[in-house]
Design brief:
Elements (H helix, E strand, L loop, with lengths): L10 H11 L6 E2 H11 L4 H5 L9 H15 L3 E5 L2 E4 L1 H8 L7 H7 L1 H10 L11 H6 L2 H26 L2 H14 L6 H7 L10 E4 L7 E7 L7 H13 L4 E6 L5 H7 L5 E5 L1 H10 L17 H6 L3
Parallel strand pairs: 5-6, 6-7
Antiparallel strand pairs: 1-3, 2-3, 4-5
């Protein structure tokens, strides 16, 4: 299920339930905390199994790992052996106060060891602590990296699309060929180049093999436009497919399609895929067409299963 419609409790909302769970004084492995808290919070299967888009780390388990980190720094819990922890007297004292909730700001203001650690993490270039520290550190490095990555991709897609729009129409045909072959269509680049942009037959710009063996074909329409594609152009393309008794077609443009065109292709028999400028740029990025890899960062995380499986 898409991450946008699955809500998993964040780090701060998990703090009090986490400490309350450990309030019985028992030591627990991380995997046991994950299961018990998920049950207590009545999480759905989607919430329990949601993973981050890039690292594929389990969101709920990782959020609990960050809670453990803050609690360790505040001396509210202690490690008893690898992957295992229990509450400390400091943690019991906090629970006896019966707080309504816990937050990073509260912990920072009341536990000097955590405050010192947070200051070491959030100093700016001038060596001074940044404003809004609790709010900043509520988002963990991986989350910040994913947000930054998303922003970079959005900016890159727009810049790439601008370059495509500025290119000559013949070069646009080359871009289409390169993209389709990178996606596995048309066999070799030479084979694909022979057919894309060569037909011009009743709204069809080319015919390309769907696979390297040519077991099926895909009809192509490619338009380097600034103005939006009209519904009549899409209908003409669909009509050309019917005349050819074709089952599959792809309409690629640097501009956009009206809602009526999207609704139209969803109702007709030939399978027609509409690729607008934004989607074109995304596909080019995903398939390394017109872009190069600048840097690669490898992000690692604690493998809690490793420690749990090797418990004494």
């Amino acid at each position: 299920m898409p991450t946008s419609i699955v809500s998993v409790p964040d780090i701060q909302s998990l703090m009090l339930p986490f400490l309350t769970l450990l309030g019985d004084g028992k030591e627990r492995f991380h995997k046991d905390i994950v299961v018990e808290l998920a049950d207590r919070l009545n999480l759905t299967d989607d919430q329990r199994n949601l993973r981050r888009e890039k690292s594929r780390a389990n969101v709920f388990s990782q959020n609990l790992g960050y809670v453990k980190m803050y609690f360790h720094k505040a001396n509210l819990i202690m490690k008893t052996k690898e992957g295992c922890c229990r509450i400390t007297e400091t943690g019991h004292a906090l629970l006896r106060k019966k707080p309504d909730s816990l937050s990073i700001r509260f912990l920072r203001d009341n536990y000097p060891s955590l405050a010192q650690w947070l200051r070491s993490r959030t100093k700016g270039e001038d060596g001074n602590e940044n404003e809004g520290t609790p709010e900043l550190v509520a988002k963990q490095p991986e989350e910040l990296l994913e947000e930054a990555y998303s922003t970079l991709c959005t900016d890159l897609a727009q810049e790439l699309l601008d370059q495509v729009k500025a290119a000559h129409w013949r070069f646009f045909e080359q871009i289409v060929v390169d993209l389709l072959t990178k996606m596995g269509y048309g066999g070799s680049r030479q084979d694909a180049a022979k057919v894309v942009g060569k037909s011009g037959d009743n709204g069809i710009d080319g015919v390309i093999n769907e696979d390297k063996l040519g077991l099926d074909v895909v009809y192509i329409q490619a338009k380097k436009y600034t103005d939006a594609i009209t519904i009549s152009q899409v209908r003409d393309f669909a009509g050309a497919l019917l005349a050819k008794k074709a089952r599959k077609g792809v309409f690629i443009t640097t501009s956009s399609f009206p809602k009526s065109a999207v609704e139209f292709v969803a109702q007709i028999e030939p399978k027609v895929i509409l690729i607008d400028g934004q989607r074109l740029a995304q596909l080019m990025i995903e398939n390394n067409v017109g872009v190069t890899v600048k840097d690669t960062y490898e992000i690692k995380r604690i493998d809690y299963d490793y420690f749990d499986e090797n418990e004494l």
